[in-house]
Structure formats: C-alpha cells, structure tokens
Amino acid sequence: LEQQVIVSEKLSAIGKLAAGLAHEIRNPLTTIMGFVQITRSRPLDPVTTRYLGYVHEELERVNNLVSDFVTMSKPSVPIIKPIEINTFLDSVLRFMEGHAALHDIRFARDYYTAHGEILLADAAQIKQVLINILQNAVEASEPKEIVTLKTRKLSNSLVITVSDNGIGISPENLTKIQNPFFTTKDNGTGLGLSVSYRIINNHNGEITIDSRLGVGTDFNIHLPLTCDNIKECSM
Ligand code: ADP
Ligand code: MG
Question: Per the database record, which ranges form the Histidine kinase domain (predicted)?
Fold first, then answer.
C-alpha cells in the first residue's frame, strides 16, 4: 500500500508537469514537423532526405511520449464510437511504418475479421495502445524481422495480437511491465504499457501476454464487441 501511495504521488506530480508542459511542447513540435515535411518534399540530395525522415520519426516519438504523459495525468473516459476494424488497423500500421523502417522491420497482417466488421471503442485511445505495443515489438526485434498484427474473434470479443520474434520477456519482468516507470531500456520511460493497460481496462477489455525469452512475444488485446458491458456506451 505504501508503495501504491508513493507511485500515485509520483504520478500526480508527473501529471501536473505533463498537463502544463504538454501544450507548450506540442505547439512548437507541430511547427517543426510541418517545416520538416515541407523541406523533405523539396528537391534535396537523397542523404538529406533520409536524414530528414529520421528527424520526422523522432519528432513523432516525442509526440507519442507527450500523449502517454497526458494520459497518465488525466485518465479519460473512452468516447465509444463504431470503428471499422481492418481499415482502422491498416491506418495504424501505416502510421507506424516509418518507425519500423528505421529499425529495418516489416509489418505483416493476418486478419480473421471480415472487411466492414465493427468494434465499439475509442479510436484515439486504441490507436495509442497499438502504437505503444507495436513500438515495443519493433524495439525488441533484430533488424530484418517481421512484426505481425493479427485479429480474431473469440465469442463476444475481438482479440488483436501483436506478435514479434524478438528478445522476449523474462517471467520476473512479466510481473513488472504494467508498473509505471518500469523499463529495461536505456532511453525508455516505462509509461507505454501502464498507459495501455489503463486504456484497455477502461474499455472493459484485457491484455494477455505469451512470451518466451529469445523466442518472441505475443501481446493479445481483448476487447468486447458488444455495447452491453461498456460503461457510457452511446450506441
Ligand atoms: P518502455 O518501452 O519505455 O521501456 P513500456 O511500458 O512500453 O516502456 O515497456 C516496459 C518494458 O516491457 C520494456 O522496457 C521491456 O522490457 C518490456 N517489453 C514490452 N514489450 C516487449 C516486447 N514485445 N518484447 C520484449 N520486451 C518487451
Ligand atoms: Mg514502450
């Protein structure tokens, strides 16, 4: 309990900081990203174009980090709307493709949901979860490996799986990865998964993990497909 109090104090301090700074960070970031995009589209030597691509990816990363801090500081009730599953997942993969390319990783898809099938969820929040889990999968993988995004239906829920053949997670670390600030990376924040768990819990969903050290990891996101068990569902 004492540890919980310390964690929540830590979080509220971080939260205040995030709330105040997020806006101030985002505005110049958006301007910088705009000018990077414009500059990239001009005739330049290929090396400069490539470097500007890296700059853009890293700015995107900072932007996601700010999103995680903001979510951490003020957990928001999901705004539930119908989402066309496969189209939505494709758009998230497109969004993450640059990050994957930077690590020389390719995405594959393996959808068992039909075109046009609908999920009731908060698209922005689920996107944030997928970005975090895909980013982790990419970072855990060796160059040239493939990260697969799968879907299937299990009775009344949708299961979205992010599968990698990366380093895997030890049983000891598996018990810690949901904790805010737990990271094994030199430049990690340890916020991605704790934010993701929170978002999926707020959707009355669940995250399960299958992982083997040196073999790879599956992150399974279970989400209810019906409205009945979603709080404040407007459908
Ligand atoms: P961060 O990425 O900043 O470290 P996260 O909350 O996203 O924070 O992840 C916490 C930790 O969980 C990571 O540092 C890593 O040790 C572990 N982890 C998460 N996803 C994977 C994965 N796909 N393969 C191996 N380890 C992972
Ligand atoms: Mg992460």
Answer: 20-227
